[in-house]
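agent: user wants the structure for BED-type domain-containing protein from Trichonephila clavipes. delegating to structure tool.
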Amino acid sequence: MDKWLKRRKFNDDNSDNDNVRDQVNEPTPGTSKNTSCSKKYVVHRKYNHDFLKFGFTSTMENDIVVPECVICGFKLSNSAMVPSKLQRHLVTNHPSLSTKDKSYFERSLSSKIKQVKVFEKQVCVSENTQVASYEIAELIAVKLKPHNLAEEITLVCKN
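agent: tool returned. relaying tokens verbatim.
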């Protein structure tokens, strides 16, 4: 901040006190010029289970616990893990749900977790299947054959 402030310094060389000039304060040799890079102590807030009454659960993002809205999935910053800010999100973005109690959000959270598990079960391919697919693709590439040959091979195996 001292970088932009102009302070008056008296010139000690002259006996005249009328000789005044404006100068920009330079940082002392032992200090850094860039004060914005100084290390600041950052407080990481912890999740409280009472935040569920505002419709928020916790999730990890870059090894930091952040609140996530159960309804819309919006993730707030760790510094916003304060009841007033969580309630503001609920009232402004989900006004029809602001009167709901904690049990509603618990049911909503459990259904969201079940939905994620079902989705993972449907979408995920087993590791053995993935390895077999890679090996077939490698064999076809080594023989310099067209890749649609894999469809014929797998259809024979299926029957």
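agent: one observation worth passing along. Residues 49 and 57 are 8 Å apart (CA to CA).
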